[in-house]
Design brief:
The complex is a heterodimer. By secondary structure, chain A is mostly helical. Chain A has helices at about 5-15, 20-25, 30-45, 55-85, 90-100, 105-125, 130-170. By secondary structure, chain B is mostly helical. The chains are: A mainly alpha, B mainly alpha.
């Protein structure tokens, strides 16, 4: 457990940062991959071991970062929504409905989709919680963050190994 | 890496890249509109989706900004080239330093207003960075399989 302390902590930080709007608009898709890089670097520094990082280790780090950031990202988003009764979905709903309205799709289908949006919005505004919304964002976060965590870890490990190899030559 | 594995990587990248254009794809199958909010939400996790930075035509927009579209396009092109020919990749960190710096400089310059945001420049900085990032990912994946095969033997 102790050897995964760095991806746990960095995963937690990435989960929090994912909810912060300014950071999100600035770091875009690089939050989770960058978290993987920091976590692998910190692990090397903490253990004072600058030997080649095994890709299997990087792979596990990526999964841990993905799962941790997904869990905490979801928890924070749900908590903030519960307290403020506001979130990204509610803010962007009028635009989403406008978009759906513009699609060349059957009217009945449009109505069904819009009523689905409305139910979620009403739950979030009145109760601050929607089970459907929670399950959706949890699944989304778990899948996307884990994939980006693993991809980021493999990229980072290759980069760090190559950097350390170059340092050896000097 | 074997051809089926390269093909699997290409298919995953292709599906992810195609998903960016989900708004256009809905025109081909109306029922896909039910997945629309989830798909939109999925891509919102990896991009700020600032409406002024999305690529749009025919009243529809991409799910991610021009820069992210560029990154994924770079990854798609490289995974396709890699599918056609199994390149032996040797890494040179200078490339990632250069392309990442260019990407970051463009982000800073447009954020603090040195020059106007350009979708074409953003897209291009993304393509170069995405191409280099794919080579690192592919190299790492190769090493991962080598380690697994080494463990088996």
């Amino acid at each position: 457990m102790k050897k995964y302390i760095s991806p746990f902590i960095i995963g937690f930080a990435a989960g929090v940062l994912q909810v912060v709007p300014f950071i999100k608009s600035f770091a875009c898709c690089l939050i989770i991959p960058f978290a993987s890089y920091i976590s692998l670097s910190l692990d090397q520094k903490a253990n004072k071991d600058y030997s080649k990082i095994l890709m299997s280790k990087a792979f596990i780090f990526g999964i841990v970062i993905g799962l941790t950031s997904a869990f905490f990202g979801t928890v924070f988003e749900i908590l903030i929504t519960f307290i403020t009764k506001q979130n990204d979905l509610i803010a962007s709903l009028p635009e989403l409905i406008k978009m759906v309205d513009n699609f060349p799709v059957d009217e009945n289908i449009k109505k069904e989709v819009i009523s689905l949006f409305d139910n979620v919005k009403n739950d979030l505004i009145n109760k601050g919680f929607s089970l459907f919304y929670t399950v959706t964002i949890l699944l989304n976060n778990l899948i996307v963050n884990t994939i980006f965590g693993v991809v980021g870890s493999l990229i980072s490990a290759s980069f760090i190994n190559n950097k350390n190899k170059n340092l050896d030559f000097q | 890496m074997t051809y089926p594995l390269r093909l699997i990587i290409f298919i995953f990248v292709f599906i992810w890249f195609t998903g960016i254009f989900f708004e256009w794809i809905i025109s081909f199958n109306n029922n896909l509109i039910f997945i629309f909010p989830f798909a939109e939400r999925t891509y919102s996790l990896v991009c700020h989706q600032d409406s002024t930075k999305l690529i749009g035509f025919n009243n529809h927009h991409t799910f991610v900004c021009a820069r992210c579209t560029g990154i994924y396009f770079g990854v798609l092109i490289c995974s396709f080239l890699n599918l056609v020919k199994n390149f032996k990749i040797s890494l040179n960190n200078n490339f990632i330093y250069i392309f990442f710096s260019i990407l970051l400089l463009d982000v800073f310059a447009t954020t603090i207003g040195i020059y106007e945001y350009s979708k074409i420049i953003s897209f291009l900085t993304g393509v170069f960075f995405g191409s280099v990032a794919f080579s690192y990912f592919y190299y790492g994946l190769n090493k991962l399989f080598e380690e697994k095969i080494g463990l088996k033997n």
